[in-house]
Amino acid sequence: MGAKLKVAGWVVVGALAGGLTTMQLQATARSNPVNQLPLEELQQLAEVFNVVKTSYVDPVDEKKLIRDAIGGMVSGLDPHSQYLEGKNFTEFRESVSGKFVGVGIEIGMEDGLVKVVSPIEGSPAFKAGIKSGDLITKIDDTAVRGLTMDQAVKRMRGDRDTKVILTIFRKSETRTFPVTITRSEINVQSVSAKMIEPGYGWVRVRQFQEPTVIDFVRKVNDLYAQDPNLKGLVLDLRNDPGGLLDAAVAISAAFLPQGVTVVSMNGQIPQSRAEFKAVQRDYSRRSGFDPLKGLPDAVKTVPVVVLVNEGSASASEIVAGALQDHKRATIMGAQTFGKGSVQTEIRQLPVANTSVKITTARYYTPSGKSIQARGIVPDVMLDETAEGNVFAALRMREADLDKHLNSGQGPEVKDAAREKAREEQRKKLEEEAAKSAASPKPLPEFGSAEDFQLAQALNRLKGKPVLVSKSAVERKPEASTTN
Predict the structure, then answer these.
(1) Which residue among the candidates 123, 314, 370, 439 is catalytic per the annotation?
(2) Which alpha helices (H) appear in 136-287, and where do they start and end?
(3) Residue 272: domain span
(4) Which of 152, 187, 222 is the last residue of a domain?
């Protein structure tokens, strides 16, 4: 059982990568005349409500029953539609805005402990002296070992100006010590960048949020300030779960010729039938100014490699698909998650702090392909490490989710071989973990000197040989469970 839990922990990133492509439209819920409502079914709903209210073993909250009914109606549509209220509403707004209240660290897991990947510059954790590589062993009085990453994150977050005590083990100093941190509002850094070596830059987009485009422009300008004659750029979208549609269009437009199509979408309501091009009006509708105006002209022509993997979903797939179809970049890595649907947040609800995030359209790459339940197939397939793939077979993707939409483009066949491969790999890792009494070795940090895929991307930009995967093949489209 312990081995199973250890292995499951490494599947989280892929399993959560369903992601979002969220449109912030002022969409209006269309109201049907009363005579068009299914009265017989509504009467049945009222009867069931009354039975539960009067006959359940304990008294029930009527309002909660109604909220649960609404939630069930929406969540029954597909994996990405959701009724948002309370904590779910707050967390969704935070994910879009790039702001939350917490201590300000990017984290991973190592040997059952929370590992600090990086403190966010200027955050309470940064000011308190937390360093990359620190291991958090306790959060207040709760031991971290045994918690999931999500549980650890929730314990570190809280209300503004409240305190949390983190117990830190610092390997380099072989000591453990407590740090008291006062929570505050954190502005997430969704973009990071650095020079890999002279002439070659690396830009990583973690998620497409409201500040992402501004951050991207600033980071790219920093790279060109270091070297105005960049020979190549790696755009890293691995494990990027998606985010705002206009941010994805903007990042695509940064590299593409003016006016070409980035993505199109089609759905039932008029607002969901549109084509988005590499023009200002299509990626800066809310701000009114062009955030890409300050980019150097060389960005339009610099050779680009885009790195993707099974965790690249939704908005990140839009960017990869646009640059691939226009032959503007070489896509390298693994076949992506396959989330080709758009969600619209509809806020015109009578109860405060509630909204409905509902799937309103499928989106299509410039060549007209739907990647729903399929994904983007890289131009060059890469393994995760020089030794091969460790966790790739375990990662969930869109076609593995219950009630997922089909692509809308032709028949799809269930890939039983993928299910078998996932189960075999899971058992293998569990057996290895049981024998060694340790968690599987984590993959190197993206952007580090040990990052095998980044090294191959750099080789591609230099015209050197690339260690192409010998085992990876294009995954077959899989059938929807409902459509």
Answers:
(1) 314
(2) 149-156, 212-226, 245-255, 280-283
(3) 191-462
(4) 187
pTM: 0.79
Q: What is the pLDDT of residues 387-416, one digit of tens each?
A: 888 766 666 678 777 778 876 655 554 556
Catalytic site residue 441? no
Q: Is position 383 annotated as part of the catalytic site?
A: no
Alpha carbon distances (Å) from 189 to 73, 211, 473: 35, 8, 34
Asked if 229 and 200 touch (Cβ cutoff 8 Å), the reply is no
Catalytic status, residue 314: yes
Query: Domains in the chain: how many in total?
Result: 2
Write down which residue in 187, 218, 244 finishes a domain.
187
Catalytic residue among 284, 339, 383, 451: 339
182 and 278 part of one domain: no
pLDDT over 60 at 8, yes or no:
no
In this structure, the strands spanning 20-23 and 232-236 are: unpaired
For residue 311 the two structure tokens come to 């965790």
Kindly state whether residue 164 falls inside one of the protein's structural domains. yes
Q: Residue ranges of the alpha helices (H) in 164-240?
A: 212-226
**234 and 349 fall within a common domain:** yes
Q: Exactly one of 325, 383, 400, 451 is catalytic; name it.
A: 325
| Digit-coded pLDDT (tens) for 438-465 | 555 677 889 999 999 999 999 999 999 9
Residues 176 and 203 in one domain: no
In this structure, are 149 and 270 located in the same domain? no
Q: Please name which of 443, 481, 219, 191 lies closest in space to residue 310, comparing C-alpha atoms.
A: 443
